[in-house]
Amino acid sequence: MAELCTNSAEISLGKLFSAVLKRDLLLSFRRKSDLVNPLIFFVMVATLFPLGVSPEPNFLADVAPGVVWVAALLATLLSLDGIFRSDYEDGTLEQVILSPQPLMVVCLAKVMAHWMTTGLPLALMSPLLGVMLFLPASAMFGMVLSLLIGTLVLSLIGAIGAGLTVGLKRGGVLISLLVLPLYIPVLIFGSGAVQAAVAGLPLEGYLALLGAMLALGIVLAPFAISASVRISVSG
């Protein structure tokens, strides 16, 4: 990252995005716990739910959309604090802010890396949990597609809270308080898409709303994320 900061505006936005994305992915794969912990938490929540409520198949099939989506939301929330934390602690984030490179592109690349190591694996693992919760096979595609779109929205929103709390020693709890209210619409429409798929109803409307949230997030979130990082680091 330091090399990216010292190279001036000669680097194109695409190359900058690609370089930051590759760097963050490489660091994530070196820290195995960052990859495994959200997945373990995701599986544990879905596994413990039948033990704490009821193992009856019809009941689990009815609540499976909500359980899977809540588990994915909490697993994403668990990993948000690490988006900027390591770069802040070693001083890289401050160098990025002072460099001529656009901070919005760097933040967007870091969010994408977070989604690729958290949201994407959660979405790909969700059919396994769907089988455990007796979710009909006809609803699997809708669940995976809704999670692919929705978890990226969760990462974009969560990065705003991560940026605001990166300067705090224990910002994990504060991130939850900041972003959980903003997560509610994503949770409603995401679980609603899976419920519609279970009932055999059209789910395009729910997916369209999630897609609209994603488009809005990609356009507006980088501005909010970069501003929150500047405020937190400067403060």
Automatic annotation (TrEMBL):
Q: How does it sit in the membrane?
A: Multi-pass membrane protein
In terms of Pfam families, this protein maps to: CcmB (PF03379)
Give any GO molecular function from the UniProt entry.
heme transmembrane transporter activity
Transmembrane listed as a keyword:
yes
State the GO CC annotations: plasma membrane
Q: What InterPro entries does the entry give?
A: Cyt_c_biogenesis_CcmB, Cyt_c_CcmB_bac
Kindly report the protein's main subcellular placement as a broad class: membrane
What are the transmembrane regions?
Answer: 35-54, 66-84, 128-161, 173-194, 206-229
Coiled-coil regions in this chain?
Answer: none
Superkingdom of the source species: Bacteria
Query: Cellular location of this protein?
Result: Cell inner membrane
Its keywords, alphabetically, are: Cell inner membrane, Cell membrane, Cytochrome c-type biogenesis, Membrane, Transmembrane, Transmembrane helix, Transport
Its BP terms in the Gene Ontology are: cytochrome c biosynthetic process; cytochrome complex assembly
Q: What does this protein do?
A: Required for the export of heme to the periplasm for the biogenesis of c-type cytochromes.
Its family remark reads:
Belongs to the CcmB/CycW/HelB family.
Protein name (record): Heme exporter protein B
Recorded name of the encoding gene? ccmB
